[in-house]
Amino acid sequence: MIEVDNLHKGFGEVKVLKGITATFLPGETSLIIGESGSGKTVFIKSLIGLHTPEEGTISFDGRINTKFTENEKQQWRQEIGMVFQGSALFDSQTVEENVMFPLKMFTDQSQAEMLERVNFVLNRVNLENSNKKLPAELSGGMQKRVAIARAIVMNPKYLFCDEPNSGLDPRTAIVIDNLIQEITDEYKITTVINTHDMNSVMEIGEKIIFLKEGQKAWEGTSEDIFKTDNEAVVDFVYSSNLFKKVREAYLNEKKYK
């Protein structure tokens, strides 16, 4: 579980995060949404320790990350998996080498043990027999699955994803969404996702947090978001005519039940 309490973060005179409080539970897929400049990226970077807050705390299963000793910080880093927006694969390394990278960095496993784990996670993301391929030989969706395999190879407690569907076609985006949700549920990972993809919000939004100008302006589920009267959320989520019609149909169905 991740607990965020009264988080503040700024850069010089610019205050980006202004008192955010939130809780993220194991086995739950939590989505962070909001307009560009709302603080989403700074928020997720604060969660993974790339930014240090000026005020407030971030606790991982009761442990405040800014109070970690060096040994505790090292252990905590091994508990985190990260899927970057552009996959961030090493172009000159094979799929196998990319996925094995965290194991080489953080463990003293033998080559055979590492390879067994790599094959396991590649199979889990439906990329078996792709070990020797280079990223350039893979589609965008396959590259994203390699990134997910690398993120979970250390069996993390916490998984962070920054725009995992960026650059993917809608069908592939759904595959990635479902894969992340399945892995979250299967391994009881605490998963936090930054996204602009409203399909993701509707499909896998077990918890949705809407940020506006650095503050938490709304929180709920994918079902709650259909019936909210929060004007900022409605304007953001239902800017598309398609989603407006979906919402209207949902509300009409509820009205006559």
Can you offer a commentary on this structure?
One of its GO terms (molecular function) is ATP binding. The protein is of the alpha/beta class. It folds into two domains: 177 residues, P-loop containing nucleotide triphosphate hydrolases (Rossmann fold), CATH 3.40.50; 62 residues, no CATH class. The protein is 42% helix and 23% strand. The strands form two sheets. A six-stranded mixed beta sheet has the order 6-7-8-3-9-10, sandwiched between helices. Strands 2-1-4-5 form a four-stranded antiparallel beta sheet, with helices on one face. Strand 4 and strand 5 form a beta hairpin. The longest helix is centred in the last third of the chain and has 18 residues. The radius of gyration is 19 Å and the shape is globular. The chain starts with a strand and ends with a helix.
In short, what is this structure?
Helices cover 42% and strands 23% of the residues.
Summarize the SSE layout with pairings.
Blueprint: E1 2-11, E2 14-24, E3 29-33, H1 40-47, E4 55-60, E5 63-64, H2 70-78, E6 80-83, H3 95-106, H4 111-124, H5 140-152, E7 158-162, H6 170-187, E8 190-194, H7 198-204, E9 207-212, E10 215-220, H8 224-227, H9 231-237, H10 241-255
Parallel strand pairs: 3-8, 3-9, 6-7, 7-8
Antiparallel strand pairs: 1-2, 1-4, 4-5, 9-10
Helix pairs in contact: 3-4, 3-5, 4-5, 5-6, 6-7
Instruction: Label the overall shape.
Output: globular
End-to-end separation in angstroms reads: 37 Å
Taken together, the total number of domains comes to 2
**Strand segment tally:** 10
Largest sheet: 6 strands, mixed
Taken in chain order, the helices and strands follow as EEEHEEHEHHHEHEHEEHHH
Second-tier CATH architecture of the largest domain:
3-Layer(aba) Sandwich
Pfam family, one: ABC_tran
Keywords: ATP-binding, Nucleotide-binding, Transport
GO molecular function, one term: ATP hydrolysis activity
Protein name: ABC transporter ATP-binding protein
